Amino acid sequence: LSLSLYLFSLSLSLSLSLLCVWQMSNLATTRLAQERKNWRRDHPYGFVAKPETKNGTVDLMVWKCVVPGKTNTPWEGGEFPITMTFPKEYPVKPPRVMLPRGFFHPNVYPTGLICLSILNEEKGWKASISVKQILVGVQDLLDNPNNDDAANQEAYSSLKRSKEQYKKRVIEEVRKYKKNYTVGDDDVIVV
Fold it and tell me: Residue 82 pairs with which residues in a beta bridge?
């Protein structure tokens, strides 16, 4: 009898665990579908954010984004590609937000992972933070690095050593991600 009770208890526990995982995953996809709808209705000029599509299937858990450099800063003119990967526990847990590997910035790890307080579960993450807020936060971080939370020693040292040299290096980074305009046959600018 006790073995049967134990097996029943184990089975019930496993079922509840699977239900919890399904509910969290369902919560994530429901929230991300709403985020997509909100983004389409209202997003900042020059920004791009959309779920990844593979073989005609939309993956709401991975978003491809573009953050423009802020005007009147050394980052102006750049269009910086970002990948946001949402965990099944989203919005309870934050997404992983990545710039390209090797991106030059004091708060971007060499892997491309962005070090930003609102993306840190222990620091500033709140379930109410939107995709729009994350991307605007990244844009703001570009020109306002957090020297108390350096993730890239080379960029941090460069900024501390000489702001002019740092600015030159930022301008080199912007050139890598410059707006990609070409002129078509009818002298129309095509993006």
Answer: 65
> How far apart are alpha carbons 141 and 114 in whole angstroms?
10
Q: Which residues of 154-163 are buried (b: 16+ CB within 10 A; e: fewer)?
A: ebbebbeeee
Q: Look at residue 19 in the predicted model and tell me its pLDDT.
A: 36
* Token pair recorded at residue 78: 């750049």
Instruction: Say which residues have a Cβ less than 8 Å from residue 61's Cβ, sequence separation at least 6.
Output: 28, 29, 32, 51, 85, 86, 88, 90
The active-site residue, picked from 115, 134, 142, 151, is: 115
C-alpha–C-alpha distance, residues 90 and 105, integer Å: 27
Are 109 and 151 a contacting pair, CB within 8 Å?
yes
Asked if residues 134 and 95 have their Cβ atoms less than 8 Å apart, the reply is: yes
Q: How far is residue 68's CA from residue 45's CA, in Å, rounded to a whole number?
A: 9
- Other residues' Cβ atoms within 10 Å of the Cβ of residue 71: 9
pTM: 0.81
**Residue pLDDT, tens place only, 21-53:** 344 468 999 999 999 999 999 999 999 999 999
Please tell me the predicted confidence (pLDDT) of residue 179. Answer: 73
Catalytic: 20? Answer: no
The list of the chain residues with pLDDT below 50 reads 10, 12, 14-24, 181-191
